[in-house]
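Hi R.,

Here's the chain you asked about this morning:
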Amino acid sequence: MDEASIRNDRSLTRTTAGLLVAIAAAITPLAHAQLTDATQTQPSVPGGAIGKSLQQQIGAGRGDEFTPGSSLYLIARDPARAIRRGRQLFQRKFTMEQGQGPRVDFVSHGDIMAHPALGAGLTDSCAACHGRPRGAAGFGGDVATRPDSRNAPHLFGIGLREMIADEMTNELRTIRDVCGLVTTITGMSITLPLTSKGVSFGWIKSLADGGWDTSQVQGVNADLRVRPFFHDGREFSLRAFAVGAFNDEMGLQAADPLLCAANDAASPAAVTTPAGLVLDPKLDTIKAAPTCSSSDDADKDGVANEIDPALLDYMEFYLLNYFSPAIGKQTERAVQGRALLDGIGCTACHIARFRIEHDRRVADVDTKYDPARGILNHLYSSVTTMFRVVADGAAYPKLLPKRQSFVVDNLFTDFKRHDLGPLFYERNYDGSLHTEFMTTPLWGVGTKSPYGHDGRSSNLEEVILRHGGEAQSARDAFAALDDDRQHMLIEFLQTLVLFPPDDTASSLDPGIPGSIAPQDPAQHGSIALSALFQIPAEGTE
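And the predicted structure, written out as tokens:
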């Protein structure tokens, strides 16, 4: 090789090395969210590995509230541990030996409309797609028939959204039933407004034949089930979504006894999930499990019973109790920006506050700007338990949710679908268009980019100006603001932030304020759910 060739070769090597470094830097933040367990990889670092193997996480299976080591036992008697186990499951990197990986033929030929798995996700961990920031979780879009692209939002506070949507559904259906009852008694058709928690869903009209005219129902399906999950509002159950995500994203099938009971061909039955949601096939179409037999290898990869039902229990319970986003520093300009959000009409759809009448969680985590106690990120989390102690003679009492009312603030959504104009429309594989999408909650928007349900807007100003359709007047009002007031509004939105729970000081683990080594997990504090664990014999998580 001559000298010139050697120089060119070295230059190419340096270029390649630089590219690899850049790629590594780009993917590292997501990699932080994914974990192996301590039985798979050594050595470990504090917080760097899951404490239990997958089989140890399954433990005694689902069991019941009297079977030690089972999911229903831990959810009832050691709920903080159950939440932590669900979080570790969310971050787990599944292996092919455990059944990970959607299987298609070698060249992936086929009709994608008939076999949507050809377009399914290819990942080994929930956190691989939803790892903002450092392990936060989130719901993605339609992975089976993915139109154009998707921008998976975060999952902070998702349990609150399930509860609000479920209570809205019950209120809307009560209005419908009252409407029908009046017609049954009087023989006259009547029209009633459909309003729940301050949100209008249009009107419903009862008919003399016992049916309803739903042509004036707005933002929700005719069955009045409010479905807050997926960008077009297609799912209402955290459990059903988790079953679908395991299957579609990772090729992991769960023979869930609850979804199977609700979809039993001979005798479908209503069930209540460990997180307290009622799935009633008489009222709703319940998503079917990919298989109802633990011995069935549904995806023909040589592995059966890939997701044990106990793991679903932990995942659902974790999602129900997942923490809300934080509120960053409220400067004078940010406060003025919040007022502008109201003034130009954004909060007609992005509604900030909702009241839950019967909160099914066992704890609340309130995270706010606190430079004195927020060691690593100027945020501090105050943890409040919300369970009641029920002694029943067992070795450990039950710690059950109080189911009291709770006010959710800074959510900024209305749980409805809207048409925001052609700049938000999406093309499906069959050429049709999706034209209506759920109002995206704004909490966490200050951390997460890009923007829009499809991720096609690179900053907040762009996504606001992209609005049209039902939001045209609010969009135009924003455009009419001078630059300074536009920036005020955006500065407020930038205070609605996410945070890494394992790196945020809290009342459970305040860390060491003034530490000279704030990067040390032992010193910067965390939301240490282990402080609430009840059963020492279960060990580390």
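Confidence is low (pLDDT under 50) at residues 1-32, 134-149.

Let me know if you need anything else.
M.
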